Amino acid sequence: MTASSHPAHRTLGVGLISVGWMGRLHSKAYESIRFAYPEATFRPRLVVAADAVQANADYAVDVLGYERSTLDYRDVLADPEVDVVSICAPNFLHREFALAAAEAGKPFWIEKPTGRNAEETADIVGAAAAAGLVTGVGFTYRQAPAIQHAKRLVRDGALGEITNVKVSLLADYSADPLGAFTWRYETARAGSGVLGDLLSHGVDLASQIVGEADSVTALTQTVIGERPVPQHATVGHQLASDDDPKRAVENEDYASLLVRFRDSKAVGFFEASRVAVGPRSDYSIEVFGTEGSLKWTFARMNELEVCLGRGGDTHGYTTVLAGPGDGDYSHFQPGAGISMSFDDLKTIEAYQFLQSVVTGEQVAPSVADALAAARVVEAAEASAADGAWHRVTRD
């Protein structure tokens, strides 16, 4: 019997809210499930996509393959053929859309930061729990097979007792002072800056490998104090003109944290920047223990640098290539050394989300995980304001 005629297959109607880059990536990830996970007992069906811009709505049908489109997200949630929803809108719309999805009884996969702050994220968690819904959150980097390998090494004690952790997320997407002022630089619409946008990924990575943050002290910096407001529509991180009127940036370009971990003697240093000149997406984690250490970077996401032991003639790091047995690697490549991509990681997310929906068991990262990261951001913002150590709230 072929996979396509498997009697256990269940069709899940997909609705998309916002057809930007991430919405397009979600759509591609759903479509890739049948290739990466032919054994899956479900098949996604792209039913309807919503975007306030007509050209994007048309793109959803003409290119992405949705059966229909709309300019009103409410049409997606009201559609009886939609079983699950992807929410890929800007931060300031997340709470509204997520609460509406919960009220409609639609499980949703949402990007982070899930809310503009911990309070909004807690509202989303509460609404999903009250509706009895599983959820998915775009903590993409935890899906890397090399990260799963690192997690196993630490769990098995190969590094000994963990002593310290370094997490770095350096990017240059806002490094040009002519980068257009968008919602990302406005507190009312984005919430925090690089703390929520990038550092939340680092917090999630550390929680997966080392454990939960217990307390933090932080400093933040706004490097580029004002940006030009474009007089025409822009997409992503486009440049504006130096002649355009300027507006003050309201949130941080750079953040660094010292971290103490819960139930561990380990300490950590975290930093993130969206204005680093040089790094494009230099996202990394280094974990040090009494018996060894490891290093991972997104730029070489299929590799893990591992050092075990404290001496010997060949003491140093060995490059370990991710392969079958590491996370979901075998669903994409047959043997170690063949690279996976960021898009593959999103396919893993899509699969885990739909698997959660079908089984009723939370397999994917959930909005509760997003709240845990938001609580760290909340403590970091408080510390940056008063210079003190702040405990991370537990829910």
If you had to describe this structure to a student in words, what would you say it looks like?
By secondary structure, this protein is an alpha/beta fold. The chain has 2 domains: 3-140, Rossmann fold (3-Layer(aba) Sandwich); 143-341 and 367-391, Dihydrodipicolinate Reductase, domain 2, CATH 3.30.360.10. 33% of the residues lie in helices and 25% in strands. The chain contains 10 helices and 17 strands. It has helices spanning 21-36, 54-64, 73-78, 91-103, 118-131, 145-155, 187-190, 194-209, 342-359, 367-386, and strands at 10-17, 42-50, 68-70, 84-87, 108-110, 135-137, 162-171, 213-221, 226-228, 246-248, 254-261, 267-273, 281-289, 292-297, 303-308, 318-321, 390-391. A 9-stranded mixed sheet has the order 16-15-14-13-7-12-11-8-17. It has a 6-stranded parallel sheet with strand order 3-2-1-4-5-6, with helices on both faces. A hairpin with a 5-residue loop joins strand 11 (254-261) and strand 12 (267-273). The longest helix has 20 residues, at 367-386. The relative contact order is 0.17. Residues 1-5 have low confidence and may be disordered.
